[in-house]
């Protein structure tokens, strides 16, 4: 489908923001200036600016214009229960999943406590790093109860495990409890992440339940400090 003009203008302005031609906290040219630059209507410019706002590139401030936001951080929702693949698709980011291992294990004492399971329970342990724009900035360590997931391999893990569990296994994933902490980097973090100078990571611990309130997954999602902010929406 041929793109309409406001979409082309959106892409050009977004690219210029990404390249740093419009740095964070500066203002874009005014609507009037953009109308002259692109030789188009004010309505077309407003549609392009609205799309930039929806995608998190700018904040439109009444009587002050369009202020460029810091796009070097990625928004991860706290309250939602969505997969990395779904988030990246929504954000339109260039992302890659690297599967380091998929193993079947007996849980250690810590995992027994985290998942409230016995020592003889079997779990899948899946270790994956996530690259965004070529940098490995997330390390996901997932544990799934094997009694609910008979088959789980590296090919499945490279895609969306949730798509597989819901569409092929038929599990009904219902809700999650989340805990966010800052921890010192582990040896796994140092091995699999592009940490730069950072010696701590933000860790999101997910306890994921099926529709009958059975905990079946525990995840530690370990994020490089500088790249992420976690967002939620609240209304009083």
TrEMBL record:
Q: Which GO terms describe its biological process?
A: negative regulation of DNA-templated transcription
Domain named HTH gntR-type: residues = 3-71
Q: Which InterPro entries match?
A: Bact_HTH_transcr_reg, Chorismate_lyase_/UTRA_dom_sf, TreR, Tscrpt_reg_HTH_GntR, UTRA, WH-like_DNA-bd_sf, WH_DNA-bd_sf
**Transcription listed as a keyword:** yes
Mention one GO molecular function.
DNA-binding transcription factor activity
| Keywords (A to Z) from UniProt | DNA-binding, Repressor, Transcription, Transcription regulation
Superkingdom of source: Bacteria
One of the Pfam families matching this protein, by short name: GntR
Keyword Signal attached: no
Q: Which PANTHER family match?
A: HTH-TYPE TRANSCRIPTIONAL REGULATOR TRER, MANNOSYL-D-GLYCERATE TRANSPORT/METABOLISM SYSTEM REPRESSOR MNGR-RELATED
- What name goes with this protein? Trehalose operon repressor
Source organism per UniProt: Bacillus coahuilensis p1.1.43
